[in-house]
Design brief:
single chain; alpha+beta; 7 helices; 22% strand
Length: 204
C-alpha cells in the first residue's frame, strides 16, 4: 500500500497525458455517469479518448495534476476557459455516439439559486480519478487539495468558487471534507443521480 504521506501531486506535462488518461479510464470504468453517456460498444476505448481530449484542453487552459507514484489525476478549468476547438468537439460528439443527447441538462434539473446565479462564474473541477488499485491510500484527498490550492494561486480568479458534478455518493463525502456543499440534486430519468456541488471560494 502507498503511504499517503509519500504521495506527491505535481503539475502535469504534455508527456503525462497518455498515462493520466489511462488512469482516469480505469477510475471511471464503472462510473454511473460515464456508463450512461458513453455507448457500451468500445466503452473503454471511447472513455480513454474522451478523458485524453479533456485533459489536453485543461492542460492548455487550466490546471492538471498527477500523482507520483502514478495512480491519480485531476483537471480544473477557470471561468474564462474557452470551449474546445471545433475539431475536438466533433470528435467528442462522435465518441458519445447515439448517447450524446444524454449530456444535455435535463428539464428536471433545479434552477440555480438567485444568489448563485448572480455570483461570478466558478472554476470547474472537470475530472478527478484514482486507479482502483490505488484507492483508499489518500490520493483523492491529495488531488483535491492540489486543485484547490492551484485555483487559489491563480491571480485572476482566486476568489471564484469551484463547482463540480458527481454521480457517486462516495465522492460527495470526499468533497464535503474540503468545504464543498451540495447545491442541487437531480435524478436523470433512466440514468444515475447527479449531485451538483460548490465550494464558496478557492481557499489557501
Amino acid at each position: 500500500m502507498i503511504n499517503p504521506m509519500s504521495t506527491h501531486v505535481r503539475s502535469a506535462a504534455p508527456t503525462d497525458l497518455a498515462g493520466a488518461a489511462d488512469t482516469l479510464a480505469a477510475a471511471f470504468a464503472d462510473y454511473p455517469w460515464t456508463r450512461y453517456v458513453i455507448p457500451d460498444d468500445g466503452y473503454a476505448e471511447r472513455l480513454r479518448r474522451i478523458q485524453f481530449l479533456y485533459l489536453r484542453h485543461a492542460l492548455q487552459h487550466g490546471i492538471v495534476g498527477v500523482t507520483d507514484p502514478a495512480g491519480g489525476a485531476i483537471a480544473l478549468l477557470p471561468p474564462d476557459a474557452p470551449e474546445p476547438d471545433p475539431a475536438t468537439v466533433q470528435e467528442i460528439v462522435a465518441l458519445h455516439g447515439e448517447r450524446v443527447d444524454r449530456l444535455a441538462p435535463g428539464d428536471s434539473a433545479p434552477p440555480a439559486a438567485e444568489s448563485e446565479a448572480a455570483a461570478p462564474a466558478p472554476w470547474r473541477l472537470e475530472t478527478l480519478g484514482v486507479r482502483p488499485d490505488r484507492q483508499g491510500a489518500g490520493l483523492g484527498s491529495a488531488l483535491v487539495r492540489f486543485g484547490l490550492e492551484g485555483a487559489a494561486r491563480h491571480a485572476a480568479h482566486a476568489a471564484h468558487a469551484i463547482a463540480l458534478d458527481t454521480s457517486d455518493p462516495r465522492n460527495v463525502r470526499l468533497y464535503e471534507r474540503f468545504g464543498f456543499a451540495t447545491v442541487a440534486h437531480s435524478e436523470v430519468p433512466g440514468g444515475p443521480p447527479v449531485w451538483v456541488m460548490r465550494c464558496a471560494a478557492a481557499p489557501l
